[in-house]
Amino acid sequence: MQIKPRQHLLDIWQAVARHSFDGGEWEWGEWGKESSVADAERLLCLLYPATEIPAFRLDDPDTTQDDVQQVLKKAGGRLEIPANLVAAAADFMQTHTGEDKRPTFAGGYYFGSADKTKELTEEQRQLGVVDSYSMSITLCLATLGFLKIYETRTRRSDIRETIAELRRTTSNRLTAAMVSLLRSFTVNVFDVDASQGRTLCELLGQGRQSQRQVLNRFQNRFRPLRAAIVESVSLGIDVEEGLKDENQLFECGWAWSVVKDAPEIETSEPIGSQPEGVANAVPYLYFTVVALDGIQDLFSDRTLTLGLLNAEQQKLAEALRLRWELTQQYWSRIARFDEDRWPLEDIPWRTTGQKLESEYFSLSVAAILVHDLMRRRATDDDLTRTVGVMERLAERGRITSRMTRDDPMVQALHNVGVALPLQGSERLGPPMTWAMTDFSAQLLKRTVQLCTLSRSLASHDRLLRLAEDIFDHMWQRRIRDGEGVGLWDNIHAAYPQAEILKRRVPVSWSITERVTEVMVQAYEMYRQPPIRSLELTELSRALLSESAHLLGNEQMEPAPKDDGRHGMQLRNIEVKLRRARSLVDEQPGTAYALALDVLGQLDSLARAREAADRGV
């Protein structure tokens, strides 16, 4: 199924409007306001495309396109749509602010209990989570950019007052989310003989290297990065002494929430008291990927062009950027630890902190590698091998291969998902878990990102085919009836023979939001110039050379009696030839087609003249 970003986004927007608006007013429904993560994801399904794709802009009613207005008619008319979105965003900010005026980041019903006989306490459900911190950064930046344009287009005094208050609360939430992400970052140092150390050595050695060999290679490979972390005093993490010992192994990344005993971050912004941390100082692959996704929005062209960050937020963003770069370098080197056989290619990945093994973790490491490949100049070998990993994950995840009888993969990756134990949560009640069921959506997202990055024809073609196969699988999983028609997630539609557990919540906003993100990325991919073929460029130049020569020859011939028609034909040929020359470097295929057309027209003129000479 070909990915058509515009049409598919219109379909998603129509479904969101049908589900979430009633008479033009935003309706949260039964499960709304229960999780700051889900609520942010729902708003981003509209705000993210509206602020990233010019054709989907809603902040200037005069530029709203007809098809966009038509699919959002449940949200109001052309003038009401932006005002109703502002009201929805203001309601979100108010809902997820505590009585002490401090922004809250509750995971809510996204949290699960590891002990099925015990319910989570209300205090546990109100705990902040990295998903919410990261999603809030993206949502707040989208909202601030939306308000910056819309406030210059509306004359309604009541909307202007709402915009002023919303800008204040949104900026405050953005600062609080950045501070919480800083306090959730951790570097975990452990001995090579400890449980984590043995797991990491087995992972990196892949049964072919001894523990001592792995340690020696780790020391050499990570010496500069270790020094960079030790020297980064601004990190504010009390692990410098352990890191200085090269006989110690380490991991860096994000815990699931604010780390226990994490120091407060000094800021002049009025975000209120900073909550005490609960999470153990152990990085999680999943939450690390989520954090990296949100942090990169702080450095997007749009954020910088519109000046969405104030001076204090810029300082916090730089501290996050440092962690962002260190983390990408660490996991990218871990993924490619052995040049002959990457640990990433040894699927499934095994985590050291949680002692779990799953294709989802291989995808998480691949996602960080994709981040790193996008940040630096990736080699063809890196891209080709990463493409191979993506293809294998799609096959093992039963996306591009058929499911077997009682297939465990359907349950493990799509239905029940991978349940992460949230270490440290037992301090407040029953041990908590976090379920990851968005394997397909995440795989699609990373595949399209790689496709955007690839400038190799072979790799790009493989990635595009894979992305279309995964998207076909995802499109099948839209809800067909009942609440949330046109949204996600109906797993049974893709796996009709599997026993699928009915979920409590009718709509998965996490999967819906990720598919929306993919459409924005696919739009950016198609906006890039096509990959240039050197062979096609040479052929095009040869055709253009022959065309120019034959045109010059034709122009020296006596004009036939129908001089006007002949002159128009020659001028048309000249225009096409000029166009082909201008495109030969960027679009050699188009130049090739134009040159062929020119040659055909010149040949027709030559044959007509020969026939006239023979008196035919």
Relevant terms:
single chain, 6% strand, 616 residues, mainly alpha, three-stranded antiparallel sheet, globular, two-stranded antiparallel sheet, 23 helices
What does this protein look like?
It is a single chain. This protein has helices at 5-20, 36-52, 66-71, 80-95, 122-125, 130-150, 157-184, 195-205, 211-231, 240-244, 285-296, 301-306, 311-335, 359-375, 380-396, 408-415, 439-453, 457-476, 491-494, 509-527, 534-555, 563-583, 588-613; strands at residues 21-22, 25-26, 111-113, 185-191, 248-254, 349-350, 357-358, 418-422, 432-436. With 616 residues, the protein is mostly helical. Helix 2 crosses helix 6 (130-150), helix 14 packs parallel to helix 17 (439-453) and helix 21 (534-555) runs antiparallel to helix 22 (563-583).
Distance between the termini: 53 Å
Beta-strand segment tally: 9
Strand percentage, roughly?
Answer: 5-15%
- What's the multimeric state? single chain
* Uncertain stretches: none
Helix content range of the residues, please?
55-70%
User: What structural class do you assign from the helix and strand content?
Assistant: mainly alpha
Largest sheet: 3 strands, antiparallel
Overall average pLDDT: 90
Radius of gyration: 28 Å
